[in-house]
Amino acid sequence: MSSQSLSRFLIEAHRTKGNINADLRLLLEVVARACKSIAIATGKGALGNVLGNAGSTNIQGEAQKKLDVLSNEILLEANEWGGHLAALASEEMDQPHPIPHRYPKGNYLLVFDPLDGSSNIDVNVSVGTIFSVLECPEGVTEPDAGCFLQPGSRQVAAGYTVYGPSTVLVLTLGDGVHQFTLDREVGAFVLTRSDILIPQDTSEFAINMSNHRYWEAPVRRYVDEMLAGKDGPRGRDFNMRWVASMVADVHRILTRGGIFMYPMDDKCRAQGGKLRLLYEANPMAFIVEQAGGAASTGHQRMLDVQPTALHQRVPVILGSKNEVERVVGYHRES
Ligand code: P6P
Questions:
Q1: 190: CA distance to ligand 1 center in Å?
Q2: Can you list the domains of the chain with their CATH numbers?
Q3: Interior/surface letters 115-138, b for 16+ CB within 10 angstroms, e for the rest
Q4: Which end of the chain is less enclosed by CB atoms within 10 A, N or C?
């Protein structure tokens, strides 16, 4: 079968399914095009004067990398003129970005982490873009941050692009999860996996082990049981991976199974967690659930969390369904 481009995939989805319209199709095409530009910028590395810090900090109080700022600008410029968006929000901006009055507005809200894992950029490890699409509340013409505070179950689309040895865009419209690989010679994303499913079981976990002493009891129990291996209560050995780029860790899980945890710990408790709900946890949870996995805070299904702030943080446990359910069970027991 001839390879199917992202554009053709979206046109056929628009023609045959009710979960996409012309504005959403344009939105996704524009985001994909922006990700191609980000891929080119990150791929230049030291040759492109894009490494190192930008000399500014974001609302998270984190030093911004030059590529954080550049990626954010690429996504803003790509999306503000098309007439498909009511507003945009980003990890890198305190407040939502309104659509300039000189451009038409649409019904969608786009929220994104323009370059997740940016601490890995200077050491040439995979980073990624994460995005989530919501509908603007009916009748709202000047959307504010409150309009973005919708549970993850209200997402109409979500995806990420991982800038690794190959550039791979993963997308869900609420009807399965599909993967597109960038054909750099043609400059197009090409469908390379359809209807991805995460194995229900796994022997591979992803967590930052240096936080062990700060975890709550259910997570310490779960990890210690895996570390005990075949002589322990799990009766088998486990393997560990931690890239410290959520996009890379989640993509591995989507590809071969696994469980990813950035749980609540004493260090991040005051902030509510480490990872951000609207543009990290929710889009990844939508994708993982659509691929047959599960995503939880430990106490609640991720997609049911009612956001209270644009840059809200949450504990994240996601991946192979049976393992996530075990961790949730330990939280329930405690
Ligand atoms: P730590 C990257 O900064 C990020 O937001 C996620 O992509 C990643 O999973 C996590 O933080 C890594 O955190 O504490 O291991 O550096």
A1: 29
A2: 6-193 (3.30.540.10), 204-333 (3.40.190.80)
A3: bbbbebbeeeebbbbbbbbbbbee
A4: N
Give the tens place of pLDDT for each residue, 50-86: 888 988 888 778 888 899 999 999 999 999 999 999 9
Tokens of 322: 């049976």
Q: Which is nearest to 252 in space by CA: 194, 170, 328?
A: 170
Helix axis angle for 22-44 and 6-16, nearest 10°, is: 160
Confidence at residue 135, expressed as pLDDT on a 0 to 100 scale: 98
**Which residue out of 59, 130, 208, 278 has the highest number of ligand 1 atoms within 8 Å of its CB and is therefore the one to mutate?**
208
Q: Could you report the average pLDDT of every consecutive run of 10 residues in the chain (334 residues)?
A: 88 90 96 98 89 85 88 96 96 95 96 94 95 96 96 98 98 97 97 98 98 98 98 98 98 98 97 97 99 98 98 98 98 96
Q: Using a 6 Å cutoff on CB, does residue 246 contact ligand 1?
A: yes
CA distance 152 to 68: 24
Ligand 1, closest atom to CA 113?
5
Give me the pLDDT at residue 193, please: 98
Of 242, 44, 25, 251, whose CA–CA distance to 129 is shortest? 251
CB of 245 closer than 6 angstroms to any ligand 1 atom: yes
Two tokens at 282? 């929710």
107 Cβ inside 6 Å of ligand 1: no
* Alpha helix positions (H), the chain: 6-16, 22-44, 66-79, 145-148, 217-227, 246-256, 282-290, 321-333
> pTM of this prediction?
0.97
